[in-house]
Structure formats: structure tokens, C-alpha cells
Q: What sequence folds into this?
């Protein structure tokens, strides 16, 4: 009963929020700059997450995000509000990222060297630790994870980062990337498997032992 | 992809049954409910490949939890964007949507004007040459000698004479 009530209040609050945003978009469409600035404030964090999930070079992210909002401002009058503003905004962001990558012909970063034994054990420790790791260990683990992610196909990396790191839902990813929801789920699951494959091959000299250990 | 009896691929990783991959992802997210959850649980009890793949996926989620989301661009970001928008709008204020066409049209006009000047100067050159040549032509003109028009026979005798003249030597 309590769960139903909380779900209901969540739905109502979501609808109110949607209506509020609708009005904000209408005001921005009629040329009210303050309304558009408010839209930027509301969505900048997620657009940043989305763009940095696709672009590998952090230094390019801010410029691309600015470009995204500029495009949104210019074409806002054509937005008919049939879809949610956020979905439209995220689609523009994804297209802008792909345009950017195409123009710059950015190649994937390649790390020549594999991870050392010491790095292996640190990453293993952070992943399997019950207690929180120290901030320096976590920072190094993040760097190692970044290097492993670079070994993945572009599409896998994007999906994993957007879903697991930037917190986009499967439904949102399906809308942004123009994919079926089930396709997103399958691609995500396969991307996880490929990440684990990289993890085992890069981190463990004897993958068979790791697999057998897990089975037992 | 070849697999052995435990549903592992060549790299010895577990491979899930393709028809259960979406449900496994849902299970990982904790989003699987009702009959679908029961169906998957039944399948997992008998399929080592799906069981292993699900465990791998759970490890991958722990691995990805290390990563941090992109930092918040900060409160001033929206102001920076608005300033850039205003700047762009000011730059584009003088430009209408016809600006690119106008530029192309000017280019065409310039090319046409150049071609016209070339044609006119060529024509003028030819004309002045013709004017200069006129006195020489007049000097060297050979008086035209027009052949005398044959006079018409005035009488019957003239006709006979003409016939005799034209048939002379034909026999």
C-alpha cells in the first residue's frame, strides 16, 4: 500500500515536472532568454555526461556542449514538443559528438603497454574489496579501467559509460540512439561480456584459473 | 563461435543463450518481474553459460562503478553559453539567409562582366583593324568588268544566226 502511494506520488511529481518544463520550453521559444538559461542549468550536467561518455578527450567536451546548446537555441522554434525536450536535446548532443569525431577524425587512443603485475593486483583489490579503497587506489583503478575501456569497440564503450557511469536508463538510451529497447539490453549485455574478456586477458595471465575459481 | 559443453567460447568466457540476453540484462538491473523472472530462474538452473555470463556481467558492473561521472560544469556554465549565443547572434545579425546566394550571385556577375569586357575589347580591336584596312582595300580594288549582257534577237534573221552560231562545229 505504501509502495503504491509512493509510486503514485512519484508519477504525479514527474508529470508536474514535465508540465513545468513544457512551459519553460514555450517561454524560451517565444524568445525569453532567462527561460533558455534555466533549461541549460537543468540539463547541463546530463549533457556533459553524455558528451564525455562519447568523446574521449575531456578538453573537447566543454566546447562541444556549448555548441550543442547553441544549436538547440537556434532550432528551438522548430521543436514541436511531441517528444520530451530532454530526448530531443540528447539526440542533438549525440549527433554533435559524432559530427565532431568525424570532422576531427579522432582515432582511439592506444595504450601500447599492458598492465603491470602490481597494477593488476590493485585493480583486482578495488573491484573485489568489501571495504572502500583509498582515494589514490581508486584514482589508479579508474585510470586502469579507462585503459581497458579503450580496448573495447566504440559502440560498447559508449553504451557502458552512458548506462553505468552517466546513469542513463535503457529507455533513454534507446530513444537517444534510435534503437529498440531490447537491442540496447542485448548490446549492453554483450558489451559487459567483452569488457570482462578484456579484464581477464589484460589482468590475468591465466584466465582459465579465474573462470574455474568462479565456478567453484 | 565454437563452444564446448559448458557454453564457453574460444577465449574460455561464458556465453549466454542469445534468447535470454535481454532478460539477463534486466535481471542484472533488478528490473525483471513476474513470469519472466520465473522463466529466467528456471533457465539459469539448467544453463551454466547463462549463469556464468550473468556473474561476469555483475563483475563488470562492479568494475564500472569505479568510474566517476563527468564533473558538473558549474553554475557559471549557463552564463558562458548564453554569452556565446549572444555573440553568435550578433555576428550573424547582418547576415540574412540569402547571404550565401548573394555571394555566389556576385561571383557570377563579376565573371560575366569580365567576359563582356573581353568580348567588347576584342570586337573593338577587330573594328579598328577593319577601319584601318579600308583605304588599302579601296586602292587595290580591281574594277569590276561586268560581262556584256547578250542582246535579245531583234528579228527572225538574228535567231537563225544565233542558232547557226551555237550549233557551229557540232556536226
A:
Amino acid at each position: 500500500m505504501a509502495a503504491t502511494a509512493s509510486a503514485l506520488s512519484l508519477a504525479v511529481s514527474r508529470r508536474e515536472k514535465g508540465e513545468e518544463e513544457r512551459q519553460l520550453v514555450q517561454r524560451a521559444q517565444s524568445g525569453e532568454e532567462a527561460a533558455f538559461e534555466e533549461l541549460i542549468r537543468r540539463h547541463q550536467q546530463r549533457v556533459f555526461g553524455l558528451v564525455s561518455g562519447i568523446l574521449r578527450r575531456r578538453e573537447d567536451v566543454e566546447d562541444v556542449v556549448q555548441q550543442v546548446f547553441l544549436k538547440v537555441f537556434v532550432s528551438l522554434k522548430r521543436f514541436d514538443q511531441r517528444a520530451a525536450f530532454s530526448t530531443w536535446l540528447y539526440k542533438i548532443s549525440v549527433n554533435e559528438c559524432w559530427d565532431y569525431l568525424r570532422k576531427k577524425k579522432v582515432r582511439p587512443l592506444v595504450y601500447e603497454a599492458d598492465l603491470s603485475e602490481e597494477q593488476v593486483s590493485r585493480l583486482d583489490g578495488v573491484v573485489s574489496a568489501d571495504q572502500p579503497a583509498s582515494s589514490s587506489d581508486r584514482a589508479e583503478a579508474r585510470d586502469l579501467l579507462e585503459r581497458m575501456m579503450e580496448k573495447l569497440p566504440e559502440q560498447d564503450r559508449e553504451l557502458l559509460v552512458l548506462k553505468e557511469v552517466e546513469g542513463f536508463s535503457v529507455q533513454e538510451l534507446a530513444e537517444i540512439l534510435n534503437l529498440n529497447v531490447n537491442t540496447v539490453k542485448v548490446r549492453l549485455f554483450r558489451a559487459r561480456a567483452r569488457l570482462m574478456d578484456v579484464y581477464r586477458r589484460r589482468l590475468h595471465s591465466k584466465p582459465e584459473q579465474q573462470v574455474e575459481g568462479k565456478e567453484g | 563461435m565454437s563452444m564446448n559443453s559448458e557454453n564457453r567460447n574460444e577465449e574460455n568466457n561464458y556465453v549466454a543463450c542469445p534468447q535470454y540476453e535481454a532478460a539477463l540484462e534486466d535481471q542484472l538491473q533488478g528490473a525483471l518481474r513476474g513470469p519472466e523472472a520465473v522463466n529466467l530462474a528456471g533457465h539459469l538452473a539448467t544453463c551454466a553459460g547463462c549463469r556464468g555470463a550473468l556473474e561476469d556481467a555483475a563483475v563488470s558492473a562492479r568494475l564500472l562503478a569505479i568510474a566517476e561521472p563527468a564533473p558538473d560544469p558549474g553554475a557559471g556554465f549557463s552564463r558562458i553559453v548564453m554569452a556565446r549565443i549572444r555573440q553568435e547572434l550578433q555576428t550573424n545579425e547582418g547576415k540574412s539567409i540569402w547571404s550565401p546566394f548573394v555571394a555566389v550571385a556576385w561571383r557570377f556577375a563579376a565573371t560575366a562582366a569580365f567576359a563582356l569586357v573581353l568580348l567588347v575589347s576584342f570586337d573593338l580591336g577587330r573594328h579598328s583593324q577593319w577601319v584601318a584596312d579600308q583605304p588599302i582595300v579601296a586602292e587595290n580594288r580591281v574594277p569590276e568588268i561586268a560581262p556584256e549582257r547578250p542582246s535579245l534577237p531583234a528579228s527572225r534573221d538574228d535567231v537563225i544566226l544565233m542558232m547557226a552560231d551555237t550549233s557551229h562545229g557540232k556536226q
